[in-house]
Design goal:
The protein has 269 residues and is an alpha+beta fold. It contains 6 helices and 12 strands.
Length: 269
Protein backbone atom coordinates (compact mmCIF):
# COMPACT_ATOMS: atom_id res chain seq x y z
CA UNK A 1 0.00 0.00 0.00
CA UNK A 2 1.43 3.46 -0.86
CA UNK A 3 2.56 5.35 2.23
CA UNK A 4 0.30 8.34 1.52
CA UNK A 5 -2.76 6.10 1.27
CA UNK A 6 -1.86 4.25 4.47
CA UNK A 7 -1.74 7.54 6.38
CA UNK A 8 -5.08 8.61 4.91
CA UNK A 9 -6.67 5.35 6.02
CA UNK A 10 -5.05 5.66 9.46
CA UNK A 11 -6.63 9.05 10.04
CA UNK A 12 -10.07 7.68 9.29
CA UNK A 13 -9.71 5.85 12.63
CA UNK A 14 -9.18 9.00 14.71
CA UNK A 15 -11.69 9.02 17.57
CA UNK A 16 -12.23 10.85 20.81
CA UNK A 17 -11.65 9.02 24.05
CA UNK A 18 -14.62 7.75 26.02
CA UNK A 19 -14.45 10.49 28.66
CA UNK A 20 -14.24 13.25 26.06
CA UNK A 21 -17.25 11.82 24.20
CA UNK A 22 -19.38 11.62 27.33
CA UNK A 23 -18.49 15.24 28.15
CA UNK A 24 -19.84 16.48 24.83
CA UNK A 25 -16.52 17.21 23.13
CA UNK A 26 -16.69 17.10 19.32
CA UNK A 27 -14.13 16.25 16.65
CA UNK A 28 -13.36 17.27 13.07
CA UNK A 29 -10.67 15.38 11.13
CA UNK A 30 -8.85 16.59 8.01
CA UNK A 31 -6.47 14.61 5.85
CA UNK A 32 -4.56 17.85 5.17
CA UNK A 33 -5.00 21.48 6.22
CA UNK A 34 -2.87 24.60 6.46
CA UNK A 35 -2.82 24.60 10.28
CA UNK A 36 -5.13 23.12 12.89
CA UNK A 37 -4.75 26.30 14.96
CA UNK A 38 -5.67 28.47 11.98
CA UNK A 39 -8.72 26.33 11.30
CA UNK A 40 -9.75 26.71 14.93
CA UNK A 41 -9.48 30.49 14.56
CA UNK A 42 -11.66 30.44 11.45
CA UNK A 43 -14.27 28.33 13.18
CA UNK A 44 -14.19 30.55 16.27
CA UNK A 45 -14.73 33.68 14.16
CA UNK A 46 -17.64 31.88 12.48
CA UNK A 47 -19.35 31.35 15.84
CA UNK A 48 -17.98 27.97 16.96
CA UNK A 49 -17.68 27.79 20.74
CA UNK A 50 -16.37 24.28 21.28
CA UNK A 51 -15.22 22.22 22.97
CA UNK A 52 -14.02 21.02 19.57
CA UNK A 53 -10.90 19.16 18.46
CA UNK A 54 -9.45 19.66 14.98
CA UNK A 55 -7.04 16.91 13.90
CA UNK A 56 -5.06 16.72 10.66
CA UNK A 57 -2.90 14.10 9.02
CA UNK A 58 -0.71 16.80 7.52
CA UNK A 59 -0.24 20.57 7.85
CA UNK A 60 1.03 22.69 4.98
CA UNK A 61 1.71 25.72 7.20
CA UNK A 62 2.21 24.36 10.69
CA UNK A 63 3.39 26.86 13.31
CA UNK A 64 5.23 26.74 16.58
CA UNK A 65 5.92 29.43 19.17
CA UNK A 66 6.96 32.94 18.11
CA UNK A 67 5.75 32.36 14.55
CA UNK A 68 8.27 29.62 13.85
CA UNK A 69 7.43 26.96 11.32
CA UNK A 70 6.49 23.48 12.52
CA UNK A 71 7.56 20.66 10.23
CA UNK A 72 4.46 18.52 9.71
CA UNK A 73 5.46 15.15 8.31
CA UNK A 74 2.77 12.45 7.89
CA UNK A 75 2.36 10.02 10.77
CA UNK A 76 2.73 12.58 13.56
CA UNK A 77 -0.10 14.05 15.62
CA UNK A 78 -1.35 17.55 14.82
CA UNK A 79 -4.36 18.46 16.94
CA UNK A 80 -5.98 21.61 18.29
CA UNK A 81 -8.62 22.04 20.97
CA UNK A 82 -10.95 25.06 20.77
CA UNK A 83 -12.45 26.19 24.07
CA UNK A 84 -14.66 29.20 24.78
CA UNK A 85 -15.22 31.28 27.90
CA UNK A 86 -12.34 29.75 29.82
CA UNK A 87 -11.87 32.67 32.20
CA UNK A 88 -10.01 35.96 32.28
CA UNK A 89 -7.41 36.80 29.64
CA UNK A 90 -4.64 37.22 32.22
CA UNK A 91 -5.16 33.61 33.32
CA UNK A 92 -5.11 32.18 29.80
CA UNK A 93 -1.35 31.33 29.90
CA UNK A 94 -2.15 28.80 32.62
CA UNK A 95 -3.77 26.67 29.93
CA UNK A 96 -0.36 25.99 28.44
CA UNK A 97 0.61 24.19 31.64
CA UNK A 98 -2.76 22.41 31.75
CA UNK A 99 -2.04 21.16 28.23
CA UNK A 100 1.48 20.10 29.18
CA UNK A 101 0.19 18.02 32.09
CA UNK A 102 -2.39 16.41 29.79
CA UNK A 103 0.12 15.65 27.04
CA UNK A 104 2.68 14.02 29.30
CA UNK A 105 0.01 11.90 31.01
CA UNK A 106 -1.26 10.71 27.60
CA UNK A 107 2.29 9.89 26.52
CA UNK A 108 2.96 7.98 29.73
CA UNK A 109 -0.19 5.92 29.23
CA UNK A 110 0.67 5.25 25.59
CA UNK A 111 4.33 4.31 26.07
CA UNK A 112 5.00 3.35 29.67
CA UNK A 113 8.12 5.56 29.48
CA UNK A 114 7.30 7.62 32.56
CA UNK A 115 10.88 8.03 33.78
CA UNK A 116 12.11 9.14 30.36
CA UNK A 117 9.53 11.87 29.79
CA UNK A 118 9.71 15.42 31.16
CA UNK A 119 8.16 18.87 30.71
CA UNK A 120 10.35 21.75 29.58
CA UNK A 121 9.26 25.32 30.26
CA UNK A 122 7.09 26.70 28.90
CA UNK A 123 5.47 24.21 26.56
CA UNK A 124 7.64 21.31 25.37
CA UNK A 125 7.64 17.61 26.23
CA UNK A 126 11.00 15.85 26.23
CA UNK A 127 11.89 12.20 25.75
CA UNK A 128 15.39 11.33 26.97
CA UNK A 129 16.17 15.04 26.93
CA UNK A 130 15.15 15.59 23.29
CA UNK A 131 12.05 17.45 22.13
CA UNK A 132 9.18 15.08 21.45
CA UNK A 133 6.24 17.49 21.41
CA UNK A 134 5.29 21.14 21.53
CA UNK A 135 2.19 23.10 22.51
CA UNK A 136 1.02 26.35 20.92
CA UNK A 137 -1.49 28.31 23.00
CA UNK A 138 -3.40 31.26 21.56
CA UNK A 139 -6.14 33.17 23.37
CA UNK A 140 -8.43 36.10 22.61
CA UNK A 141 -11.72 37.55 23.84
CA UNK A 142 -14.59 35.33 22.71
CA UNK A 143 -15.90 37.01 19.51
CA UNK A 144 -19.54 36.14 20.17
CA UNK A 145 -22.13 38.62 21.40
CA UNK A 146 -23.12 37.88 24.96
CA UNK A 147 -20.16 35.57 25.61
CA UNK A 148 -17.94 36.15 28.61
CA UNK A 149 -14.25 35.55 29.10
CA UNK A 150 -11.76 34.41 26.49
CA UNK A 151 -11.56 31.66 23.90
CA UNK A 152 -8.47 29.48 23.86
CA UNK A 153 -6.90 27.59 20.99
CA UNK A 154 -4.57 24.87 22.28
CA UNK A 155 -2.46 23.22 19.59
CA UNK A 156 -0.43 20.03 20.04
CA UNK A 157 2.30 18.71 17.77
CA UNK A 158 3.66 15.30 18.80
CA UNK A 159 6.36 13.42 16.90
CA UNK A 160 5.00 9.91 16.63
CA UNK A 161 6.62 8.60 13.43
CA UNK A 162 9.46 11.04 12.77
CA UNK A 163 11.28 14.07 14.12
CA UNK A 164 12.45 17.18 12.25
CA UNK A 165 16.11 17.51 11.29
CA UNK A 166 18.52 20.42 11.73
CA UNK A 167 16.79 21.88 14.78
CA UNK A 168 18.59 24.16 17.28
CA UNK A 169 17.96 21.52 19.95
CA UNK A 170 17.81 17.70 19.87
CA UNK A 171 14.48 16.32 18.61
CA UNK A 172 13.10 12.80 18.71
CA UNK A 173 10.03 10.73 17.86
CA UNK A 174 8.19 7.89 19.57
CA UNK A 175 9.27 5.61 16.73
CA UNK A 176 12.88 6.19 17.89
CA UNK A 177 12.28 4.90 21.42
CA UNK A 178 12.94 1.26 20.54
CA UNK A 179 9.45 0.02 21.32
CA UNK A 180 6.25 -0.42 19.33
CA UNK A 181 5.34 3.26 19.11
CA UNK A 182 1.68 4.24 19.46
CA UNK A 183 0.04 5.61 16.35
CA UNK A 184 -1.17 9.21 16.20
CA UNK A 185 -4.85 8.14 16.37
CA UNK A 186 -4.21 6.00 19.45
CA UNK A 187 -2.33 8.82 21.13
CA UNK A 188 -5.02 11.35 20.29
CA UNK A 189 -7.73 9.26 21.96
CA UNK A 190 -5.68 9.22 25.17
CA UNK A 191 -4.87 12.93 24.86
CA UNK A 192 -8.51 13.94 24.47
CA UNK A 193 -9.37 12.20 27.74
CA UNK A 194 -6.25 13.47 29.52
CA UNK A 195 -7.14 17.02 28.56
CA UNK A 196 -10.55 16.64 30.22
CA UNK A 197 -8.86 15.43 33.41
CA UNK A 198 -6.34 18.29 33.36
CA UNK A 199 -9.06 20.88 32.77
CA UNK A 200 -11.04 19.40 35.66
CA UNK A 201 -7.96 19.77 37.86
CA UNK A 202 -7.56 23.41 36.77
CA UNK A 203 -11.21 24.12 37.53
CA UNK A 204 -11.12 22.31 40.88
CA UNK A 205 -10.79 23.98 44.27
CA UNK A 206 -7.01 23.82 44.00
CA UNK A 207 -7.09 25.65 40.67
CA UNK A 208 -3.80 26.46 38.98
CA UNK A 209 -1.87 25.61 42.14
CA UNK A 210 -2.81 21.95 41.64
CA UNK A 211 -1.81 22.07 37.98
CA UNK A 212 1.41 23.89 38.85
CA UNK A 213 2.35 21.25 41.43
CA UNK A 214 1.77 18.44 38.95
CA UNK A 215 3.73 20.27 36.25
CA UNK A 216 6.68 20.95 38.58
CA UNK A 217 6.80 17.30 39.65
CA UNK A 218 7.73 16.44 36.06
CA UNK A 219 9.77 19.52 35.12
CA UNK A 220 13.07 19.12 33.31
CA UNK A 221 16.00 20.97 34.85
CA UNK A 222 14.27 21.94 38.08
CA UNK A 223 16.94 22.87 40.64
CA UNK A 224 19.65 22.82 37.98
CA UNK A 225 21.56 25.48 36.09
CA UNK A 226 19.93 26.39 32.77
CA UNK A 227 20.36 28.92 29.98
CA UNK A 228 17.47 31.09 28.79
CA UNK A 229 17.60 32.95 25.49
CA UNK A 230 15.57 36.16 25.65
CA UNK A 231 14.92 38.68 22.88
CA UNK A 232 17.95 40.83 23.66
CA UNK A 233 20.07 38.74 26.00
CA UNK A 234 20.86 35.27 27.27
CA UNK A 235 20.83 34.61 31.00
CA UNK A 236 22.08 31.69 33.05
CA UNK A 237 21.02 30.52 36.47
CA UNK A 238 19.37 27.97 38.70
CA UNK A 239 15.80 26.99 37.75
CA UNK A 240 13.94 27.55 41.01
CA UNK A 241 10.25 27.19 40.13
CA UNK A 242 7.38 28.67 38.12
CA UNK A 243 5.24 31.28 39.84
CA UNK A 244 1.46 31.51 40.10
CA UNK A 245 1.34 33.08 36.63
CA UNK A 246 3.47 30.31 35.11
CA UNK A 247 6.53 32.56 34.74
CA UNK A 248 9.99 31.03 35.03
CA UNK A 249 11.95 31.99 38.14
CA UNK A 250 15.71 31.53 38.10
CA UNK A 251 18.50 32.68 40.40
CA UNK A 252 21.43 34.28 38.58
CA UNK A 253 24.67 35.66 39.96
CA UNK A 254 22.92 39.05 39.98
CA UNK A 255 19.85 37.84 41.83
CA UNK A 256 16.43 36.45 40.95
CA UNK A 257 15.02 36.86 37.46
CA UNK A 258 11.42 36.27 36.43
CA UNK A 259 10.98 35.32 32.77
CA UNK A 260 7.70 35.58 30.90
CA UNK A 261 8.91 34.34 27.49
CA UNK A 262 12.12 32.76 26.26
CA UNK A 263 13.84 29.62 25.02
CA UNK A 264 15.26 27.31 27.68
CA UNK A 265 18.34 25.24 26.95
CA UNK A 266 19.29 22.45 29.36
CA UNK A 267 21.43 21.15 30.78
CA UNK A 268 23.84 24.06 30.91
CA UNK A 269 27.26 22.96 29.62
Amino acid sequence: MPQSLSFELEYLSVELGRIARTRGVRLVVHDEIDSTNEEAKRLMLGGERGPLWIVAGRQSQGRGRLGRGWESSPGNLYATLLLSEVGRLQNAPQLGFVAGVAAIEALKSATGLSERLALKWPNDILLDGAKLAGILLEAAPTPIEGAEGVSAIVGFGINCASAPKNTPYPATALADCGLAAPSAPMLFSLLSDAMISALDLWESEGGFQSVRAQWLSQAAGLGENIRVALTNETIEGRFETIDVAGRLKITTHRGERVVEAGDVFLPLV
